[in-house]
Amino acid sequence: MLFALRSLCLVFSATLALLLSCLITPSSFAQTTQRQYLSGTDKDHTVDWRFRVSGGRQAGRWGKIPVPSNWEMQGYGTYHYYKDWEGDDLAPDSVGDYQVRFRVPRDWQGQAIDLVFGGVMTDTEVKINGQAVGPIHQGGFYQFRYPVASFLKYGQNNLLEVRVRKFSTNRSVNKAEREADFWLFGGIFRPVWLEARPPQHLVRTAIDARHTGAFSIDVFLDSITSARRVTAQLQQLDGTPVGEPFSAAIQAGQTEVRLQTQVRNIQPWSAEFPYRYRVLVQLRANDQTLHQITETFGFRTVEVRPHDGVYVNDQKIHLKGVNRHTFWPETGRTTSPALSLQDAQLIKAMNMNAVRMSHYPPDSHFLDVADSLGLYVLDELTGWQAAYDTTVGEKLVRELVIRDVNHPSILFWDNGNEGGFNFDLVDDYAKWDPQRRTLLHPWLNTNGINTAHYEAYDCCPGTFFHGSDLFLPTEFLHGLYDGGLGAGLDDWWQAMWHNPLAVGGFLWAFADEGIVRDDQSGRIDVAGNRAPDGIVGPHREKEGSFYAIREIWSPIYFEQSGQDRLPASFTGALRVENRYDFTNLKQVQFQWQLVDFPSLTDTTAHVAAHGQTTGPDVAPRAWGTLALDLPTDWSQHDALRLTATDPHGQAVYTWTWMIPSPAQLAERFVTPGSGTVYGAQGDGIVGMRTNGLQVQIDATNGTLLHLSRNGQPISFEMGPQLLEGTTTLPKVTWQQDGSDYVVEAQYDQESNLRYLVWRLLPSGWLRLDYTYHYRGGETHPYLGVSFHYPEDQVTGVRWLGRGPYRVWKNRMKGVAFGTWQKAYNDAVTGNVWDYPEFKGFHADLYWATLDTRQAPITMVTTTDDLFLRLFTPTEAEDPRTTHVDFPTGDISFLHGIAPIGTKFHPASDHGPQGQPNGVDRLGRDYHGTVYFYFGEDVPTGRSATGN
């Protein structure tokens, strides 16, 4: 929490000019850089300017537009995605004209004044008071500036005119930025401001601060005449001095100077412990401070050791990352510090420690948050499969690096993306970066790191998992709808974790890139299947993959994490691996709870006992034992919950293990009742009745034909149907068995379905036992049985099992044991963001109640590891290789379910969990037992274990 609060303060101070004064004393205010915003500061704080656009909506009409913004999101121009603008008549060459009047203080006269644009798409022509202030700027994602002191009228009104071309007159800029696989916007989308400095002034700095305490800073100067020294003082964030002041002499006309020092006992910066410091730099003439600036930085060292690993502060690290676009559905690429903080917190909540800026430099406030919360960053020059020419590229590399160079979060620069590389620019990064960060070319193998995109699991001969170079896929497991991302990641990460050359990887992508279309009644448009790629939705709605990734990338790994239940031999000790890079587990707190799930109608987990313990002394990459001081009667409860909290007070993950088996819990909930069940046979039907329930079974094959309760039909029928294999006509028998009535179907040995028994108890519980068999060596997409039920009668479901999200065979993580409830929905992941989705597979069923308009249908199983399938999810447009063929029927009980693929690969390309369900070499029988009750008056036994 401390880091989050510091982040919020510092992010807003970076964007609100008034808060800059909190970093200095009032007496020194005259020597600081003064900032005056001409626009607003973010999407939530804007200023209206006059505006017109040449094409599309409202073409040619002067109106008002908030700045900063993208004009498409304000009702102007034309929406464009990817290359769709080429060859159509949708105003591809639209031009936006902006005008705003402003005043500057009279006492600014004689100062050095810059007009700064945070980002404009894409060609920018600027005039003040009718005069061009400099050359047209080309490149849509970069901060640029013009010296404008000579164009201003001080203490009077001034007119700023900006002409913006959405598509550049430079073909290479269009190819790098505008022919890209993302939404293409126009406009002044980041803030615009004036900066005033004294005539002799500090221009900027470039810092190299090592984890050893070695510190150097390149200070860039302008118009030096009488100044003779640059001094610096390192400080903690609260202003407390660190070490002694240090300085260097300068002379008239000098434009650059380097200052160096060595300090002791510093706290290095890392993603786990993002300690930051400040440096106060002053330009001095004798005893007078002419100008001063303050920079925030972190002491940290980054090394790429070929054939070994990536090291931060001499510690080998693993990058667990995601690709993030700068994006919000109502405002396009105009965002805010609050949104940057929210996104970074979501990324950290998934136990990620890295983010790639795809495919352009982000807002500077996002980098501020990455510094303060702790995220490793890949900062990227735009170049989506095509590169800038050298003339433009050299200018943009400079703008990229000089803006971002002092952020400790940035580990690497990316020189474009997927073939969008101009190798003439390679040397330019080091010109502006004294740290000489390693340069990556995402999808190439350069500088000892193979960043190949979208390879198959455990590929490739002579490279990746089987090569000698480091590998860091900067895009992998491409999401689409509910596929990819968390699906397949468990196999990938286990292979990566145990491969010494694996640096980590970056999932594609963080959020579905959907925009609110005012020309389509406010519909959120994700451009077909091009942009619904995210772990979260456009408004950050969490998909099931969010929680799967959170568990898979937890830096705390329990040997028992793959187990459903605690063994009878459990003594309160859990074998644990420390997968942190810098944190010892003794810095982690663990909270445990023993919980009970008391009934079939109460979805509240009741905490029976709880406790807390500090983690064991286990260093990174080591194993140890976590001992929990559980009460002696722990086994009399239903589940053990364990939550880990990191050194900063943030929850890492909550693991839950059941204690009783489904069979043990079923004994509690299912009661036989009293009285007698009556049965009869006629016209090919076996009828049974008790407690108002009437059941009809097909006398020729043993399947359920019809149900009614108190005369009201219940449309649960046509089952069990075996999903894979053959079913022969069985021998069906029926008989009274004590107070129960039993219908039994036995199939011959050539049938895959071997046996099923219906047993109606006097209490009204209807029990189904079934057995099916597959020969050895076979594989099947599904193992199980199904029933039919009309979907339009369903209103919701309550259940005890893993939830609340559905699962896939290759995305079993991120769901926890508990009692869950959700209303019916027809959510289409990535198109309709009503999460968690209702339909699909639900893991490790204990019991479930399907709420319907006819009567509740309660299902209790005694079978371990059983999946409950609820209907067939509606499929989105062109699902590509995320398509899943669902089995017949509506309600299914399954021993084996299907995996889901990614955008580019079928599930089988991404690891063992993506393969079909295999059968033991000698074949296997599968058994299932499910009890059904139809109605609200569910009869159960005792309410809780041990009570």
Describe the structure in your own words.
With 947 residues, this protein is mainly beta. It folds into six domains: 33-197, Galactose-binding domain-like (Jelly Rolls, Sandwich), CATH 2.60.120.260; 201-297, Immunoglobulins (Immunoglobulin-like, Sandwich); 336-552, Alpha-Beta Barrel (TIM Barrel), CATH 3.20.20.80; 556-658, Immunoglobulin-like (Sandwich), CATH 2.60.40; 675-774, Beta-galactosidase, Chain A, domain 5 (Distorted Sandwich), CATH 2.70.98; 785-855 and 864-925, no CATH class. 10% of the residues lie in helices and 37% in strands. Strands 50-51-52-53-64-60-59-56-57 form a nine-stranded antiparallel sheet, with helices on one face. Strands 2, 3, 5, 8, 9, 10 and 12 form a seven-stranded antiparallel sheet that branches. A six-stranded parallel sheet has the order 30-29-28-27-26-34, covered by helices on one side. A hairpin with a 4-residue loop joins strand 18 and strand 19 (241-249). The longest helix has 15 residues, at 390-404. Mean pLDDT is 94; it is low at 1-30 and 943-947. GO terms for molecular function: beta-galactosidase activity; carbohydrate binding.
